């Protein structure tokens, strides 16, 4: 559930995991797929009945004397459940 408090909007029960490889990240996507709610309708046998939010946060830095900072990037992938009404 999406909630709001004095500090802003957040997703209740959300987890943040550290991954060190693309395969490890894909394992979390697969786990999320297993928890998705689906149902059938006139248009689709496996219609999504739940929203999915996958946020990838990347922290990167260069080694050596040329660059001394850290770059933070964020990619949000959002799949909203359909509405057939």
From TrEMBL:
Pfam families attached to this UniProt entry:
Kinesin (PF00225)
Keyword set, alphabetical order: ATP-binding, Motor protein, Nucleotide-binding
Q: Name one GO molecular function term.
A: microtubule motor activity
Report the domain of life of the source organism.
Eukaryota
The record places domain Kinesin motor at 1-85
Which spans of this chain does the record mark as coiled coil?
Answer: none
**BP GO terms, sorted:** microtubule-based movement
Which family does the UniProt entry place this protein in? Belongs to the TRAFAC class myosin-kinesin ATPase superfamily. Kinesin family.
Protein name in the entry: Kinesin-related protein 11
